[in-house]
Amino acid sequence: MADAGTDSDTGGRTAHRPLWPALLCVLLVLLAVAWVAGRQSLFGAPDQPASLDAVRLGPDPGAPVAAYLAGLPARWPAPGAPAVPALVQFGTELDGAGVARLLAGVTPATAVIRVPLPRVQTALRFEALPPVDLADPVLGAQRRLALAQQAAARDASAEAGRLTGRAASVARYEAAVLGGRLGGAASGGPGAAPGGPSGAAPGAPSGVAPGAPSGAAPGGPSGAVGGASSGAPTPCRCVLAVLVVGDRVGLSRLAEQPAVRAVDAAPAGTPTSGVALAPLLPEQTEVAGPVPDDGPVPSSPGRGPGPEPTAPGGS
After folding, report:
1. What are the sequence ranges of the domains in the chain?
2. Which pLDDT score is estimated for 308?
3. Would you state the pLDDT for residue 84?
């Protein structure tokens, strides 16, 4: 009987145990869920980078070049459709004046700058083209490209200070060319180049590079496009591609120019901020794959092109 009474008392105490700790836990969980939901509503979910939805303009890695070029016209906007972003890729690097003359009828947005160097990987520098106050569209585009070259020169100079060995030597050479400190190196006149229209045969060989995004830059006097008199660097043949916005008529006209190798258009409704640029390199003639990086790196400015004084990897 004593044991039965004890069991009865224990059961009673268990039955009357307070419920508030469990209710408090449930309330805290609900508050936490509500806080997270409200934060994501205000600021957006933090784990959805925009780059996942970016439209690639340029060949996929390993893609056959001929097939890529042949398929581009089908991607252009329909006649009468709104303008779309498109990556205009040249058969070889051009100077700003040559590029500016090609861009009539389209709106340039970003320049892809690259210093050509045989069998040496140099950087692709993506430079936004800042607005300028010039009524003439050709002079305006030329000025914007000159500002992009100045920005690329600063980027290369900064990289030369951070890097070591062969990579630093390459960046120093790029900074010298882009800054106009190498007399005539990679520079030239109008910049007409072989290449053929989109879908035609690939263009002439030159150097290559991995990408390195960057921003635009403030510039010199309005209308000045280069040369010692304006204080701007000497224009170099360093423009590999340009992101433009154009309609079917403008893009078709561009594709017919001998200097243009490819015109790769994004789908309708794509903003310029929603594309990823991967231009075809001039020496990629069969497959969009790796290219050589075993050539000599020119030495410091003042000596001109020559063999790198140290072996690749040295300082």
Report:
1. 18-47, 50-277
2. 47
3. 98
